[in-house]
Design a protein that fits this description.
By secondary structure, this protein is an alpha+beta fold. 18% of the residues lie in helices and 20% in strands. The chain is built from 7 helices and 13 strands.
Length: 285
């Protein structure tokens, strides 16, 4: 039976129980190279449960996004959590802020998602997230759509489809002291959430290794967490959640009068309209 534990991640209740904080030596995942085969990258999502993308954002875009994040929400004092850390977490507003449009279908991430989630997949949510010194997170998974015995999942003939996933954009170089995301490649094959397990089958969590402007895409049944931010700097991260197209939409219909800001309607592309739920005729939920 899967139980839930509310980790101090400032976001939502995640799947995991017990002490899942990794206290050993951390190593980086291999430094990513530019994606040359969408099919190979999609296969990594089935094999490892994740894939890294270097340079999804140009340096000028990184600076633009950091300034955007600083301008959102209230004063910094509002996000200082006593005896913990600075935790600024603001949900995405796809209907009113056109700046989200350039983040929801960035290639080659969009191309990989199109293969693993199928045509007409949707954006299921997102957020801006700035965290400071003292913030860390134990290993957990975000959503387990299909739970199976681990010995069954070890059979190469068994492949659980990917129903949901998240793309993280990082606006800082991911070094240990800033509290980078931790992943255990292949842990989606556990078929369950971690319980008092900071490792899986002898595999320790590994730090993502992208620089500012890079990103990582991972499936929601992959065990992941975050190292402790021991620096004096804040970590800037933007996340976009995706789901296969039969899932409930997070936004009102684009055709609903007054639901979307004019700047969004003026700049949205046909591909982005599909991501926000404007499905071609014949597509049902």
């Amino acid at each position: 039976m899967i139980t839930t534990t509310e980790y101090r991640n400032g976001h939502h209740i995640t799947k995991g129980s017990g002490d899942n904080v990794y206290k050993g030596v951390l190593e980086h995942l291999p430094t990513p190279t530019p994606i040359t085969s969408i099919e190979d990258a999609a296969e990594l999502m089935h094999k490892d449960g994740c894939v890294q993308f270097p340079d999804l954002l140009a340096p000028a875009e990184v600076a633009e996004m950091r300034a955007w994040m600083d301008s959102q929400g209230g004063p910094d004092s509002e996000y200082e959590v006593k005896n913990w850390c600075f935790n600024k977490h603001i949900g995405a507003d796809f209907t009113q802020d056109a700046r989200w449009l350039k983040l929801i279908d960035r290639s080659p991430a969009w191309d990989v998602l199109n293969l693993i989630l199928g045509e007409n997949f949707i954006v299921a949510g997102g957020s801006l997230w700035v965290t400071g010194r003292g913030r860390g997170m134990g290993m957990h998974l975000d959503h387990l759509a299909v739970g199976l015995p681990e010995d069954l999942l070890e059979d190469e003939r068994v492949r659980v489809p990917i129903f949901t996933g998240t793309l993280h954009y990082y606006l800082d170089d991911q070094v240990e002291e800033i509290g980078p995301t931790l992943l255990i490649p292949g842990s989606h094959r556990a078929g369950r959430a971690p319980h008092n397990e900071p490792t899986w089958n002898g595999r320790a969590p590994r730090m993502i290794s992208v620089k500012a402007g890079g990103a990582v895409l991972f499936r929601h049944d992959l065990w992941h967490g975050a190292a402790m931010n021991t620096s004096t700097r804040r970590r800037y991260m933007i996340q976009v959640h995706y789901a296969e197209g039969s899932r409930r939409l997070p936004c009102p219909p684009i055709t609903q009068p007054g639901a979307y800001h004019p700047s969004v309607l003026e700049n949205i592309t046909p591909r982005q309209r599909v991501l926000l739920g404007d499905k071609p005729k014949g597509i049902f939920y």
